[in-house]
């Protein structure tokens, strides 16, 4: 197998030559015997910044593929001590070993194991879960691999299960049921956090989301886990249901899981859950990420990362996002521009989840007034 070298962040990594595994001039990373996806570089860049703040003493890169994540954490994220690389694919193991050596990592171990089996045997401060598709089968063991106070990083690409597009897989993977909501991208992230919270609670741990976001058809999040039955109970209190009124569009979250009618207009509501109803991000952690931006100026994506962090900071005090296209179609009027909506509402921001979306603390009647005003503006 021919290997080629690529550079990402401060790492120089050997990957199987994509040209050898192309079909009719096309290439999908999944066709390669060892997975490396350049479209996930942004995910890794933001993760490197987040892990640099955690500055863990030990790391488990549970699904390493080429080793790129763990190697980048070692070179860029202030890991204090050991990094364990793991993959069940024997060809991965050969490549990880070469990459670990070529990047001069000293305190690292390369293991070939099933991730779940390994995660039940080790204890580290930070575990990274980056599976193909759903992280659901790995969450329980991932949490059990953490020390008393530990951190979990998770990537999820199974959006149809998380957002409720595929009802059967939503139930199977996340125990989530109900209908698809217009703010489905946020709903998916909240369903994933709820699943993590429940898996943590079984192990008498509570969770605190530090940073969580959507990008390019995946979710990425970091949570802190704290030991203790009381912490677990407090976490479970943050689980509830997401609602959206079919008539007026009002969206809300509640710990009451049996609401049938909209509190504003008494219209029928759609529901989806269980979902996390707490904050998606920790303000202090986001501020630290923002402060760190200058030390990562060597990353080609740093402008995008900085914009995302700014967005998350701006969005953090608001609850669910609304969509101008959905509300104006419900009202059977033209869609106003986003700029008009933000100005009209005053207390509102765009959301990173969706270019058609905004978050606001205004009431649904004020939102509808602005949609109406913006629509008239367009017509004149
Ligand atoms: C999406 S790739 C990981 C990509 C890598 N973390 C990165 O940032 O480039 C998923 C990897 O998980 C491995 N894998 C899948 N199921 C596994 C399991 N049960 N135990 C260990 N490794 C597994 C696959 O062999 C594959 O290399
Ligand atoms: Zn309503």
TrEMBL record:
Annotated S-adenosyl-L-methionine binding sites: 44, 69, 87, 114-115
Keywords: Metal-binding, Methyltransferase, RNA-binding, S-adenosyl-L-methionine, Transferase, tRNA processing, tRNA-binding, Zinc
GO biological process: tRNA N2-guanine methylation
Catalytic activity from the UniProt record: guanosine(26) in tRNA + 2 S-adenosyl-L-methionine = N(2)-dimethylguanosine(26) in tRNA + 2 S-adenosyl-L-homocysteine + 2 H(+)
UniProt keyword tRNA processing present: yes
Alphabetized GO MF terms: metal ion binding; tRNA (guanine(26)-N2)-dimethyltransferase activity; tRNA binding
InterPro entries, alphabetized: SAM-dependent_MTases_sf, Trm1, TRM1_arc_bac, tRNA_met_Trm1_C
PROSITE patterns reported in the protein's UniProt record: SAM_MT_TRM1
Enzyme class: transferase
EC number: 2.1.1.216
Superkingdom of this protein's organism: Archaea
Binding residues for Zn(2+): 245, 248, 262, 265
Protein function: Dimethylates a single guanine residue at position 26 of a number of tRNAs using S-adenosyl-L-methionine as donor of the methyl groups.
Family the entry assigns: Belongs to the class I-like SAM-binding methyltransferase superfamily. Trm1 family.
NCBIfam families, per database record: PRK04338.1-7
Name of protein: tRNA (guanine(26)-N(2))-dimethyltransferase
Gene behind this protein: trm1
